[in-house]
Write a structure and sequence with these properties.
Elements (H helix, E strand, L loop, with lengths): L2 E5 L3 H13 L3 E5 L6 H7 L3 E4 L3 H5 L5 E5 L4 H10 L3 E4 L4 H16 L6 H9 L11 H13 L6 E4 L6 H10 L8 E5 L8 H6 L16 H4 L4 E5 L6 H13 L1 E2 L8 E2 L3 E6 L3 H6 L5 H7 L2 E4 L10 H16 L5 E2 L1 H9 L5 H15 L3 E2 L1 H7 L1
Parallel strand pairs: 1-2, 1-3, 3-4, 4-5, 6-11, 6-12, 7-8, 8-11, 13-14
Antiparallel strand pairs: 9-10
Amino acid sequence: MAKVLILEQSKSMRNTLRERLEFEGFATTVAERGEVSPTAVARRGYDAILAGEESRKVAELGIPFIIVTPEGTIDGAVEAVRSGAEDYLTTPVDMNRLLGSLRRIVERNEQPQAETVQRRARRRATEPSSDIIGSSAAIEHVRRLIEKVAPSDARVLITGENGTGKELVARSLHLKSARADCPFVEVNCAAIPSELIESELFGHERGAFTSAIKQRKGKFEQANGGTLFMDEIGDMSLSAQAKVLRALQENKISRVGSDKDVTVDVRVVAATNKDIRAEIAKGNFREDLYHRLSVILIKVPPLRERADDIAELVEHFIRQIAAEHHIATKSVEADAMATLRSMPWSGNIRELRNVVERLMILSGDSVTAEDVRLYC
């Protein structure tokens, strides 16, 4: 179970964050800032820290951290990113965004540190279905599209609700392509303040702005030769959209603070949970960018439309969670599985995994229908 340290002065905010994170399966410790020593933090082995705006002090602890502050400022966001913050959130906290950032930290921590991107890509390319689990007609259709599209360099727009597995589709496209031995770089457009998105995507030169103390390559350059996965593309500002459009048209980018072009060879795969057509009608998204991104459209079905896959997904998660927690696997009784299949699953695959983890920890030797009713 991932451990999160919550350093927050407000008792009510500490309790709110603790209750929600524990409900989602995280182990939490709460404290006021300044109460916890670096030695204690290291001994407890935290996976992530939620803290206020004291970015530099938290960064010194050497643990991935997320800033949560009641009053966000541009200077605060710049300082947080420069200090290495994984995300910069203002209250009231967007819990979906916070949980997404925490899960990315946990997933990254679980990967062997000595394993390079190239070795990881080669290893995962040999794994069946790239972790896309299920045999329903809906998911088989997605697989067939991946098989057809992956060998080309065509841009792909992946749509679907939160938690449906859009990132898995993007990774599968990369791993089955000729770019599999090159970088797969992910950027969550919703997790980056609009003031910093251009620097994050295109990099910046030293002195481009107050906190730019050295040259920095952006995500496009980091992904050169490989795949850039732009998640939550629908949340990108119009000014950043214009620069992304130019990069796609010309295969060139310019760092913030530079008048020189840098040629990049990147396959862009984008994803969104929004109705982009509706966003275009509202003036929130450029139609020309939409057409550039959506050469191929892949819609990932919600879990309620692929209920036939739930049993297979549950068995997969049981094996995965048993290995993570070093516990024995458990069987799921037929009536318990029927109950799981009948649930609405508004959080899709992500919610299902959380429920399975909860049942693995709290149920007896096997998972019963009563366990499902109690803990779901």
